[in-house]
Amino acid sequence: MSLWEPRTELGRMVKEGKIRTIDEVFANNYIIKEPEIVDILVPGLKQELLNVNIVQRQTHAGERSLFQAVVAVGNEDGYVGVGIGKARQVRQAIEKAVREAKLNLIPVRRGCGSWKCSCDEPHSVPFVVKGKSGSVEVTLIPAPKGVGLVAGDVAKAVLRLAGVKDVWTHTRGDTRTTLNFALAVYNALRNTYYFKI
């Protein structure tokens, strides 16, 4: 990590030790433009490959095939990010997606919003939130302890990385589109900070 040369003001502040936690970054509304900042401030970040697709683009010389990777990252404790990467090789596409997911890291407000459970532990979402991407619309509904993640596999991966343990989901649209499904869940989690409590 000592080889990293920060290119932004936030990067320099992190390297000099003026900012020590990721919470300070979000509290001051800084924009993360370097993935190394996340590596330093959020150690133990886990990543999960959600999907790899072949996408084609028409050029003068014919069709050009690229791999598109969708990756989710999170620390399973209130922070999650989703990224997309395209490259000629799968490994490069995944690396690009991981970099973008780190830059898209968001805080997730967790709570116990279910009326069937009054434990005051942050195991679910604090209230009903909705997220949309493309044709996919996802509604996250607070669930009592022990219910688990009642969701599709892609949504489960994103929610698990965000640190949400119990939630009911309601989806509309074409959830087979992994990218839109992942982004809809990501947008719903981002909306947990839409209201000031």
TrEMBL record:
Annotated keywords: Ribonucleoprotein, Ribosomal protein, RNA-binding, rRNA-binding
Signal peptide positions (record): none
Domain S5 DRBM stretches: 45-108
GO biological process entries: translation
Record InterPro entries: Ribosomal_Su5_D2-typ_SF, Ribosomal_uS5, Ribosomal_uS5_arc, Ribosomal_uS5_C, Ribosomal_uS5_euk/arc, Ribosomal_uS5_N, Ribosomal_uS5_N_CS, Ribsml_uS5_D2-typ_fold_subgr
Family per similarity comment: Belongs to the universal ribosomal protein uS5 family.
Subunit (UniProt): Part of the 30S ribosomal subunit. Contacts protein S4.
Record protein name field: Small ribosomal subunit protein uS5
Species of provenance: Pyrobaculum arsenaticum
Organismal lineage: Archaea, Thermoproteota, Thermoprotei, Thermoproteales, Thermoproteaceae
Gene transcribed to yield this protein: rps5
